[in-house]
Amino acid sequence: MTTRPDLDQIVQDIAGEMLRRPDRGEVARYIPELARVSPEQFGIAVIDADGAVSAAGDCDAPFSIQSVSKVFTLTLALGKVGDRLWKRVGREPSGSPFNSIVQLEREQGVPRNPFINAGAIAVTDVILSGHKPREALGEILRFMRFLADDDAISIDEAVAASEQRTGFRNAALANYMKSFGVIENPVEFTLGVYYHHCAIAMSCRQLAMAARFLAHSGVQPTTGRSVVTPERARRINAIMLTCGHYDGSGDFAYRVGLPGKSGVGGGIIAVAPGKASIAVWSPGLDAAGNSHLGRIALEMLVKRTGWSIFGA
Amino acid sequence: MTTRPDLDQIVQDIAGEMLRRPDRGEVARYIPELARVSPEQFGIAVIDADGAVSAAGDCDAPFSIQSVSKVFTLTLALGKVGDRLWKRVGREPSGSPFNSIVQLEREQGVPRNPFINAGAIAVTDVILSGHKPREALGEILRFMRFLADDDAISIDEAVAASEQRTGFRNAALANYMKSFGVIENPVEFTLGVYYHHCAIAMSCRQLAMAARFLAHSGVQPTTGRSVVTPERARRINAIMLTCGHYDGSGDFAYRVGLPGKSGVGGGIIAVAPGKASIAVWSPGLDAAGNSHLGRIALEMLVKRTGWSIFGA
Amino acid sequence: MTTRPDLDQIVQDIAGEMLRRPDRGEVARYIPELARVSPEQFGIAVIDADGAVSAAGDCDAPFSIQSVSKVFTLTLALGKVGDRLWKRVGREPSGSPFNSIVQLEREQGVPRNPFINAGAIAVTDVILSGHKPREALGEILRFMRFLADDDAISIDEAVAASEQRTGFRNAALANYMKSFGVIENPVEFTLGVYYHHCAIAMSCRQLAMAARFLAHSGVQPTTGRSVVTPERARRINAIMLTCGHYDGSGDFAYRVGLPGKSGVGGGIIAVAPGKASIAVWSPGLDAAGNSHLGRIALEMLVKRTGWSIFGA
Amino acid sequence: MTTRPDLDQIVQDIAGEMLRRPDRGEVARYIPELARVSPEQFGIAVIDADGAVSAAGDCDAPFSIQSVSKVFTLTLALGKVGDRLWKRVGREPSGSPFNSIVQLEREQGVPRNPFINAGAIAVTDVILSGHKPREALGEILRFMRFLADDDAISIDEAVAASEQRTGFRNAALANYMKSFGVIENPVEFTLGVYYHHCAIAMSCRQLAMAARFLAHSGVQPTTGRSVVTPERARRINAIMLTCGHYDGSGDFAYRVGLPGKSGVGGGIIAVAPGKASIAVWSPGLDAAGNSHLGRIALEMLVKRTGWSIFGA
Questions:
Q1: Has the ipTM of the complex gone over 0.90?
Q2: Helix axes C117-128, C187-198, angle to 10 degrees
Q3: Could you say which residues bind substrate here (chains A, B, C, D) (predicted)?
């Protein structure tokens, strides 16, 4: 496919164009910590099968990873309970906005997939069971540091506190699931852990590092350490493709053609199986809540590299 | 990857196992023509990039392709109106059963994607516009014969007549869309064409032939004829992956990991980009309305070939 | 309560005020025949227990009774099949707009009550069964003429034809119910009878005459002829109160406090049990599709007469 | 209508028959305090315009009034904020079960009426605003004691605690409304007051006393004290009629024909305007969650007294 110098050039080109574009989407405004972030920023990092990093723009600026964290909590929960997880959460696209409660009423409190809010809360609850909130959160944070090979990764406590103070919709989702027995722990504990892992701050470089195992059959290239089985890596990728961008997942697959997961902080991770792990970030969002420039950048990257999983 | 003798063997193995399995799903019973088909049958055909065919079981038995036809009508409609099609139909997973009308009420009569019934009816309406029903149907049939390189392909008129006689739910969907202006032609004309293209009878071998262009960047291997652009082939594959199996699309992606489209007649086509086009058939369906053994056969095929688009 | 001269005066006062008011609502525009009607018109007729008529304004102008007809088709259908009717239609408020199809999907094709469109179509189907459409329509028309004691009442064929030409939403509802077996006759026959009885043209005076039996325990005062049992009259009144004004039924009960039924032509009939039958008409509608001035006129009438069923 | 001796006899007859009947419905089981109550009990109390009480069966046994309390909190909230209340809650039947959250999503967090759970929680929040929970609860309790003229009325703390411990669905509703700004106070405070007023324990005699003002134009007969204006009394009655029995309100109007409000503890109050206030109690519920024998008893009472508001 592409040789290294090409990929560096592509990444530089994309960052240059993204930093210049006038259309930047709308920054999330529901908490002040996110509303304050400048939409002028754009970062990108791509790590290939040899571990070589191509990065550009604000690739080292930490941002709130928000829902991107859900890929990693899903991985942890599958590691903890295996396929029993699928009794607590489905794996079908929702056909609804990320915070819809309607689907829960229709389906007995079982969320449709691990990437809508309700599903991610249920996944967090699985990780929490048998632990204190502090322990569960520590486990998640250690996992992120291990994957990214960077012990400096931390939680933005101000973001977590803000989310907790205003997160009535998530409290509704959690209580609703609790009424069906889908949540086992006290709602405030589960939500506490959830808000904190969403408030982890990471850079594009760190996220692309963390996502490497998904691009390489569950194994971290260079170190050779196995994180999950090849089959599990494929399956997590499949769920990212069908459910990773809320009610814009079909459009993302159509335009970009890579498994990916977005967060309301403007970050997106994407996976080109066998080729590279990718993270992009730009705080402005489109109507579906996904990074506006992040999606466009990924579309350009795939066009120039031919990495679409749907054909050359 | 795999060499030819291996693929032949794999296909033989799968057919052998599928013909023996006791669990066969439930044959569709809503019209007598489908209810009569024996669930004991199983066929498979795989065509690789060189045009070599590996086929086994009831691979030459014709069956009612039903919703599998929707991939080809989508291709035709995109050829006719291009991206203007997306004003009439979305491309997001529905999160609902194939014949749900609820989503239409919520979204002003615009169906969520081209593969649920409402969306496929809207696509048929696009093909019909400017033509008489007979002409539109002729165009669809000629396209199928061209793609499969087989002029013997025909419509099972008894199936079409039966569907038309009992298709009140589809008539509801079509009239509902018509009330929002999403359907342009007289409802009975659009439905007439729709029922007839769903009633096309084809074998696994013929379907795998017809799907070749999707596996090979829009080009038919061996002849080198271009059917669609590479980008359009990728995009159709993306829609198949996110929406191809109704409310079981997420599960199909999770288990099989290939773009595909199923029909209530028990057929499924699947696409391994760059590698092969595939058709399987077994009339017994699972709870989501997809071929029970067809899905299991594809899961086995992908496991043995490593063709998952989500990684090795 | 009120003596005759008082009631005459009240009715005159109301008509005078209603004809002068500047706020007149919006005339229905979905067919040209209704869109053409002048919103300047207002009529009222009140018939007391002695058969004395107080009428004012455009009380003799015929208008399209539309959904007001549903009270009388319900009466006919109950006369034909009795309580077996309730297997085909419910009697709960719908909590949805008059033409919603969502509820039908949730409840297996059984409409919530006889006064939403789907329910009235199901009721029409009951009347039609065993008859030709022409016969069923003749029976409905004869019943209206008998109740109003006026053989001049007729159907506005232009309205019926217009409704039929554009009634795709109703065709969707009917086909949807047919798919569940709730509709027995060919959909086009049932809809034909439905559109025609909705297109009956009557004046306020005629409608108030027709509604007398509901105000007087099932018996027409003056003639003493029994139309239904006292219990059935009460029950029809109960359904009018809970379901008579689509998704504005609660508000109508709250403001007016009488059983009533409105139509999109701007007519409303209301019943003060033991006291009077009432018809008002003004073509301008409010947001819920009920006559704007008609509702206000009834509110004034109840205030001045003390006829609310909910207390003095 | 009826003379006193007749009414006494009717009430005795009904109690006798109800105590003997084999069909008793199903006692609510979601908290142990309600599950323990014997379904063998039946009580009835009727208070006429002169203040004479006809009572029979377990008419003095206290029971958990549950949702019957919602009539009285609605009265208090209207007294506090008047028609501004209708910005926080609607007054249309819901067309859904009592604890549905779907409607809230469709209508921006505004509950459909004050008698479904979400609406009653919003009403409680209005009463709470500007007060401490203890004060608000004290006000509600004093109001009940005043209306029933009985200072012995109290709250069953075990019931309140049990509800609070298991009330995740209500917590979901409250948090959901809070996310739309419909709830002003801390969710746990509002729910605390809500659970406690639902846990008030009263007998049929006490409830019939408390409901007198609704039957008599807002005035307590015998004392002549005005509780609300006549218009407000009528309007509360109207809301009881259209919304008082969850998704069984239409059926209650159809069968009984009186404004009423039921509770899951098996109590129902009903109002015959100008004639009597009524309370019945039997713990076994029907499928819609209303007292099975309570509804049948009211049907008998109305048949023998001719008190239906829908005609003689």
A1: yes
A2: 110
A3: 67, 117, 163, 170, 194, 246, 264
- A276-292 pLDDT per residue, tens: 999 999 999 999 899 99
Q: What is the pLDDT of residues A233-249, one digit of tens each?
A: 999 999 999 999 988 99
Q: Which of B94, B286, B298, B309 to mutate to test the interface with A (most CBs of A within 10 A)?
A: B309
CB contact under 8 A, D310 and C233: yes
Residue of B nearest to A250 (CA): B92
Do C296 and C206 belong to one domain? Answer: yes
DSSP state of A169: H
Domain extent, residue D214, equals 4-64+202-305
Q: Catalytic residue among D64, D67, D69, D262, which?
A: D67
Q: Is C81 on the interface with B (CB under 8 A)?
A: no
C249 touches chain D (CB under 8 A): yes
Q: What is the DSSP string of B213-271?
A: HHHTTTB-TTT--BSS-HHHHHHHHHHHHHHTTGGGHHHHHHHT-S-EEE-TTSEEEEE
- The dihedral region occupied by B82, where left means phi > 0, alpha psi between -120 and 50, and beta the remainder, is left
**Which of C142, C169, C200 delimits the end of a domain?**
C200
Residues 134-173 of B with CB under 8 A from C: 168-169, 171-173
| A264 has catalytic annotation | yes
D176 assigned to active site: no
Q: List the structure tokens of D250.
A: 């239409």
pLDDT of residue C103: 82
Residue C180: CB atoms within 10 Å: 15
**Residues of chain A positioned with their CB less than 8 A from the CB of D179:** 168-169, 172
| Strands lying side by side in the sheet with B260-262 | B53-57, B43-48, B276-281, B267-272, B260-262
Distance CA D241, CA B77 (A): 54
Nearest to D259 by CA among D68, D65, D117, D106: D68
Average pLDDT over residues A184-196: 98
Residues C101 and C85 in one domain: yes
Question: Is B163 one of the annotated binding-site residues?
Answer: yes
Residues C196 and C71 in one domain: yes
Selection from D32, D289, D298, D16 nearest residue D161 by Cα:
D32
Q: Flag whether residue A96 sits within 8 Å of chain B, measured between CB atoms.
A: yes
